[in-house]
Write a structure and sequence with these properties.
The complex is a heterodimer. By secondary structure, chain A is α/β, with parallel strands linked by helices. Chain A has twelve helices and nine strands. Chain A has helices at residues 2-12, 28-40, 60-71, 76-89, 100-106, 108-117, 134-142, 157-164, 189-200, 214-220, 231-240, 242-252; strands at residues 16-22, 45-49, 94-97, 122-124, 146-147, 149-151, 171-174, 205-208, 226-229. Chain A has a nine-stranded parallel sheet. The longest helix of chain A is centred in the N-terminal third of the chain and has 14 residues, at 76-89. The two termini of chain A are 25 Å apart. Chain B is of the alpha/beta class. Chain B is 45% helix and 17% strand. Chain B is built from 16 helices and 14 strands. Classes of the chains: A alpha/beta, B alpha/beta. Chain A binds chain B through residues 52-57, 59, 63-64, 67, 70, 75-76, 99-102, 104-106, 126-134, 149-152, 154-156, 159, 163, 174, 177-179, 182, and chain B through 1-3, 12-18, 20-22, 160-161, 166, 170, 173-174, 177-180, 275, 277-281, 288, 290-294. The structure holds pyridoxal-5'-phosphate (PLP). Residues 84, 86, 110-111, 113-114, 189, 229-236, 303-304, 348, 350-351, 376-377 of chain B line the site of pyridoxal-5'-phosphate (PLP).
Chain lengths: 253, 408
């Protein structure tokens, strides 16, 4: 189980790292190489984003990567192939991140089945709130995949508890308002929010959106279980290439 | 789990968690104003003193004789302040924003009509205003960009994706996800997550309420058929609402672009090329590929150039209550020319789509029958596009000389 993996890892490390890559960006070989580089640099979990043409929860950096991948013709089938290669050779849990339409068009149950066959352990689908996505939750349960739920700073306590009922693996706490790829000022304001998250669920907590350097991660140690680095690593990839991403990840903890 | 905002299998609110509390608030506020008769009174009063409501229903005598069939009536939404039906929705949402106590509005726009209407409303009510517009549309609707900026709005040219309406909508959602505390997103059509389809249709229903009363007064009977163009679906649903329970045929006309086989169009319901999907926060028919990636769309009319369509219309299409047709770019320009020559009316390119289908059908109807066409907007904004389509050499000459003046 994903949750057990996280708890065991946490006994060895004071904070875990989850990174993110966009499948097919800049091409599939690079995605595979990037995943390997990240795992070698010590990453504990990874999101593999299947590009969608309308990523409303993503900011400019990830948005552009998704668009570029689609422009080069990256298909869902290609993403699944690359995923098989990644999970076969790398021994950490991988999650899919995408938008509901990708699952819906593939047929949700068929998609979760193929995801499980590809060695995927859970999914983050930001536009699939439980009210709308019963089929998704059921299909995930059937395959024993974790449907990761998200909290945000404006989520009321009651709704946090409601979401916790559907959550497995861990809960992804969005650090601030807005979309991915903008700066977050990590300050004590966060403590109150994280305390609310803690109250609502007994699952491990991940925190993402704007986590980008050693200082941010130091600040988060002891407060959460998993720090999520998304756009930060993608920026390094864009500016300096795959090798530099490994150095960047090693610099974070 | 409670699902709300569904029309058959279409609609819903597929939202990122960050926006859920904002939509909860919006649903509550909308329920409140719907239950409060003073809201509708204030709305009608504002529209009759700031805009030109009730808008006239014009008997198109010359077109009627020209086609020799049904009597043709035209609902004049072009006579609204800012020149389109968009003003109805925008003023109503403006009144809602005042009640919610927010100080900033944002909007997406395709043709620019909704953007101009929103910028106008923001000026009137003292709101800050940001308009998102696809880069392609900024280019083809420059005059509207000019007016939005003069009205005090910030216009952001969206360079993502296909750089048209859907991308402007995504950008507006991203802004809202950050700034919801003080910002309201004035969505411009009857699409998007619940409650927007219901709310925008409700505000636009004023069109049909007036038109039904007017046609009974002028023609002494209900129309046999009524026609409206369909982008996101707001002017169509606005007109159709009051006739829903009448023996009246409802006809929605989509952008046929360069023809359905060319795939360069935005015919979601009139073609069999769209499939059910979930994007931009709602479930409807989208023009998308087998993976669920949205396709490029095309129309001479920026306001119809959209991959999705109102979930309410998807439902009414499936039930057969609304019939859908598509008009090509070329047919649209021809219909526009005929309307100008015969009636002195200049419909927007969007609206002219409805004219095309009505013109195709009117000759075969009998003289006892009447029809209504919704002229959702005025065509002045399209002067550059229309002049090019018509190929007017003097206009081209004028633009050249004007450019030289600037270069001098
Ligand atoms: C004049 C006019 N008519 C129609 C439309 C299409 O929108 P809807 O289908 O919401 O009426 C637009 C959109 O910009 C418009 O400007």
């Amino acid at each position: 189980m994903l949750e057990n993996y996280i708890r065991e890892k946490r006994e060895q490390k004071d904070i875990l790292l989850m990174t993110h890559i966009v499948l097919g960006y800049p091409d599939f070989d690079s995605s595979i190489q990037l995943a390997r580089t990240m795992v070698e640099a010590g990453v504990d979990l990874m999101e593999l984003q299947i590009p969608f043409s309308e990523p409303i929860a993503d900011g400019p950096v990830i948005l552009k990567a998704c668009q570029d991948a689609l422009q080069t013709g990256a298909s869902v089938a290609d993403c699944l192939d690359a995923t098989r290669k990644i999970t076969a050779s790398l021994d950490i849990p991988f999650l899919f991140m995408s938008y509901y339409n990708i699952l819906f068009k593939y047929q949700v149950e068929r998609f979760t089945k193929v995801a499980a066959e590809c060695g995927i352990r859970g999914m983050i689908v930001p536009d699939a709130p439980p009210e709308e996505a019963e089929d998704y939750l059921q299909a995930m349960n059937k395959e024993q995949l974790a449907p990761i739920q998200l909290y945000s700073p404006n989520t009321p306590d009651e709704r946090m508890r409601y979401l916790a009922d559907f959550a497995q693996g861990f809960v992804y706490c969005v650090a601030r308002k807005g979309v991915t790829g903008q700066d977050t000022a990590f300050s004590d304001d966060l403590d109150q929010y994280l305390a609310r998250c803690r109250q609502a669920t007994r699952l491990p907590l991940a925190l993402g959106f704007g986590v980008k350097d050693h200082k941010d991660i130091d600040f988060l140690k002891g407060k959460i279980d998993i720090a999520v680095v998304g756009s930060g690593a993608l920026r390094i990839l864009n500016e300096k290439g795959v090798e530099a991403v490994g150095d960047y990840i090693r610099s974070l903890r | 789990m409670v699902k709300t905002g569904y029309y058959g299998e279409f609609g819903g609110a597929f939202l990122p968690e960050i926006l859920i509390p904002t939509f909860t608030q919006l649903k509550e506020e909308f329920a409140r104003i719907k239950a409060d008769p003073t809201f509708w009174e204030e709305y009608v009063h504002t529209m009759s003193t700031y805009s030109c409501r009730p808008t006239p229903l014009t008997f198109a005598e010359n077109l009627t004789h020209h086609f020799g069939g049904a009597s043709i009536y035209i609902k004049r939404e072009d006579l609204n302040h800012t020149g389109a039906h968009k003003a109805n929705n925008v003023i109503a949402q403006g009144l809602l924003v005042k009640r919610m106590g927010k100080g900033r509005v944002i909007a997406e726009t395709g043709a620019g009509q909704h953007g101009v209407a929103t910028a106008t409303m923001a000026a009137k009510y003292g709101f800050d205003c940001t308009i998102y517009m696809g880069e392609v549309d900024v280019k083809r609707q420059r005059p509207n960009v000019f007016w939005m900026e003069q009205l005090g709005a910030e216009v952001i040219s969206v360079k993502d994706g296909s750089k048209t309406l859907k991308d402007a909508m995504n950008a507006a959602f991203r802004d809202w996800a950050q700034n919801m505390d003080d910002t309201h997103y004035v969505l411009g059509t009857a699409s998007g997550p619940h409650p927007f389809p219901e709310m925008v249709s409700y505000f636009q229903s004023i069109i049909g309420q007036e038109a039904r009363e007017q046609i009974l007064k002028y023609a002494g009977k209900l129309p046999a058929r009524i026609y409206a163009c369909v982008g996101g679906g707001s002017n169509a649903l606005g007109l159709f609402g009051a006739f829903m329970d009448d023996p009246v045929e409802l006809v929605g006309v989509e952008a046929g672009g360069k023809g359905l086989p060319s795939k360069l169009h935005a015919a979601r319901l009139a073609s069999d090329q769209a499939t059910i999907g979930v994007a931009q926060g709602y479930k409807t028919y989208f023009l998308q590929d087998d993976d669920g990636q949205m396709r490029e769309t095309h129309s001479v009319a920026a306001g119809l150039d959209y991959v999705g369509v109102s979930p309410i219309l998807s439902h009414l299409s499936d039930t057969g209550r609304v019939r859908f047709a598509a008009a090509t770019d070329k047919e649209v320009v021809d219909a526009l020319r005929l309307s100008m020559k015969k009636e002195g009316l200049i419909p927007a390119l969007e609206s002219a789509h409805a004219f095309v289908q009505a013109f195709k059908e009117a000759p075969d109807m009998n003289g006892e029958e009447c029809i209504i066409i919704n002229q959702s907007g005025r065509g002045d904004k399209d002067i550059f596009t229309v002049a090019d389509a018509i190929g007017d050499p003097q206009w081209e000459q004028f633009i050249r000389e004007k450019a030289e003046d600037y270069n001098a």
